Amino acid sequence: MNPHLAPVEVPDPAALPAVQRLCDLTAPYTTGPETDALFAAAMAETNSWHAERSPFFRSLLADPPETPAPTVGARTRTPLLHATFFKRHEVLSVPREEVFLHLTSSGTTGQKSQMFYDRWTIRAAQRMVARIFDHYGWITPDRPVNYLLYSYEPAPDVRLGTSFTDNYLCDFAPARHITHALRHTGSGHEFDVHGCIAALRRYADEGLPVRILGFPAFLHFTLERMRATGIPPLRLPEGSLIVLGGGWKGHADRQIGKEDFYDQVTEQLGIPGERIRDTYGSVEHCVPYVECAHHRLHVPVWSRAAVRDTRTLQPLPYGARGFLHLVSPYITSVPAQSVVMGDLASLHPGEECGCPLATPWFTIHGRAGVSRNRSCAVAAAELLKGMS
């Protein structure tokens, strides 16, 4: 068995049997009444788990029930916590000695989400990623690749979620060589655009597939610099793959439409559109959302999504724009099983996509309001200033 798909056990099998069964589901986009019932049972278990261990969550659960979202389940309690809560508070449901991993959501300054994971939580989330990659045939243990990571180069004091995720994704195909775009200088990170261009040209000649992971703004800037300096389009080897994440936060003035951006990548790097995928995720909610071949962010079986009115927090129908509300019972370390994100989104039924997946999908329309809080993408985008 691939090690990334290996079994992992909940902290208390007697208290969390439905959580175990839900997270053990191997097909990432299964639908139907049986999985809905299992999801509701798992949410009830994880709510009880956190209520017993967190006085804060116990008081939250005692409040009048929130209006249920049909896409989550009419009988499923989902007390609403905004993601910004975790930028100001540390609320654990496990002893600190059981914290296996501590990650943050932002750069070196500004407010950061401090998220703590026990071994089960982070391993369960990683297995979700592995199952989605396996679903799309992206786990290739016998085929080495070259990597270009548009994320932070690891360092002993760097706990950024994006850096952790992108380096984990390198485990799905053996690395012949890895290039980091955001190089660690000892006192911070610098964007090495010339190193990225040199790596792409070298990788194009070597003949191995190339995997490009990370912030889309940096890839876009690299392609712009290639055009500006007269570097002709490259043809990266067959089997190359681009998996992006982090959005364009902080550089909306540079952002181009997704279709235009993907066309630019295909034109300059030779990677077809179906091998270019965007993702959505956060340290507050580690369930992976990965675009299908039609570039829709489908909701996997281990989670549910809703959209809530930005003023009333009432659930909205398909197609309406509001706060993205993400729900999953997988997390046992922190009561973050029901998180209202700061992103504006719209939710759509699976059949509106046209791909074989039947689960609902969502579109991100940008951030709601203006805040001083800085995500990883905002912090990274600041490195681009003055380079154009």
UniProtKB/TrEMBL annotation:
- Highest taxon of the source? Bacteria
Put simply, this protein is called Acyl-protein synthase
Q: Which Pfam families match?
A: LuxE
Q: Which Gene3D superfamilies match?
A: N-terminal domain of ligase-like
Q: Select a single GO molecular function from the record's annotations and give it.
A: long-chain fatty acid--protein ligase activity
Q: Which residues form the Acyl-protein synthetase LuxE domain?
A: 79-382
Q: What organism, scientifically named, is this protein from? A: Streptomyces natalensis ATCC 27448
**GO biological-process terms attached to the record:** bioluminescence
